Amino acid sequence: MDAASIEKFLATNTKKAGTINIHFKDRATVTGIFINTRDYDELKAKNFWRVVHTKNLERWKQTKDINLSRLFSGSGFTRLSAAAQ
């Protein structure tokens, strides 16, 4: 997926959905949240995204530790969908 498509999905869906399913071409689906850090704009320009997996979500909410996130390339995404709450 391109950065514009990802940004459009995030703008319309993250506020109501919260967690997002990220479907990939060549790996298992990841469920988590996209985070906006100080390098967000620089990464977005290169189609890279920081995601906190649901298993690390509570700890991230408490600490805001960037090391709990993983960096993913948007070019590997096939689609995004809202995760069931």
Commentary on this structure:
The longest helix is centred in the N-terminal third of the chain and has 15 residues, at 3-17. The mean pLDDT is 91. This protein is α+β, with helices and mostly antiparallel strands. It has a single domain (3-82), classed as SH3 type barrels (Roll), CATH 2.30.30. Strands 4-3-2-1-5 form a 5-stranded antiparallel beta sheet. Strand 1 and strand 2 (30-34) form a beta hairpin. 33% of the residues lie in helices and 32% in strands. The chain contains 3 helices and 5 strands; from the N terminus they run H-E-E-H-E-H-E-E.
Task: Write a short abstract of this structure.
It is built from three helices and five strands, in the order αββαβαββ.
Fraction of residues in β-strands: 25-35%
Distance between the termini: 24 Å
Arithmetic mean of pLDDT: 91
Number of helices: 3
Q: In total, how many domains does the architecture comprise?
A: 1
> Could you say what the CATH architecture is?
Roll
Structural class category: alpha+beta
Order of helices and strands: HEEHEHEE
Helix percent reads 25-40%
Unreliable residue runs: none
Total number of strands: 5
**Assembly context of the chains:** single chain
Strand order of the largest sheet: 4-3-2-1-5
What do we call the CATH topology? SH3 type barrels
Return Rg in Å: 12 Å
Main pleated sheet:
5 strands, antiparallel
CATH C-level label: Mainly Beta
Shape: globular
